[in-house]
Amino acid sequence: VQLQASGGGLVQAGGSLRLSCAASGSGFRINDVGWHRQAPGKPRELVAAMVSGGTTNYVDSVKGRFTISRDNAKNTVYLQMNSLKPEDTAVYYCAAEIIRWGTSGYYWGQGTQVTVSS
Q1: What's the mean pLDDT in 67-84?
Q2: What is the pLDDT of residue 92?
């Protein structure tokens, strides 16, 4: 199973981006999902998460601006980012707990750069 993240780019402060993370492979289902980010010189942090039942959680700094969602039919997870700020600049990674052939594993996407200019 592979996770492919896309949608990053350069945007002005106040703008929006939507990140996508598509899972490919066979014989799997996605359980919990999350988006993490890592800015230069800072540790990676969990930005948004969604458990299989649909409950979501966000880090305080993005509440009200970011929305995590999923399309189970497409095996894709999204992160809608609105009202972006320069401090949102980071490499964003998707991650998911994936159940495949009865075994659980945690998978990471390759990261996509988000740069917010002031």
Answers
A1: 96
A2: 98
Cβ-contact 83, 11 below 8 angstroms: no
β-strands 56-58, 112-117 pairing:
unpaired
Q: Which two tokens stand for residue 38?
A: 């890592």
- How far is it, in rounded angstroms, from Cα 27 to Cα 58? 30
pLDDT at residue 52 above 90? no
Determine the pLDDT at residue 51: 93
Q: Determine the Cα–Cα distance for residues 19 and 17; give it in Å rounded to an integer.
A: 6
Compute CA 43 distance to the chain's CA centroid, rounded to the nearest angstrom. 16
Which region, left, alpha or beta, applies to residue 13 given φ > 0 means left and ψ of -120 to 50 means alpha? beta
Mean pLDDT calculated for residue range 24-45: 94
Closest CA to 111 of 88, 93, 90: 93
Judge contact between 50 and 34, C-beta under 8 A.
Answer: yes
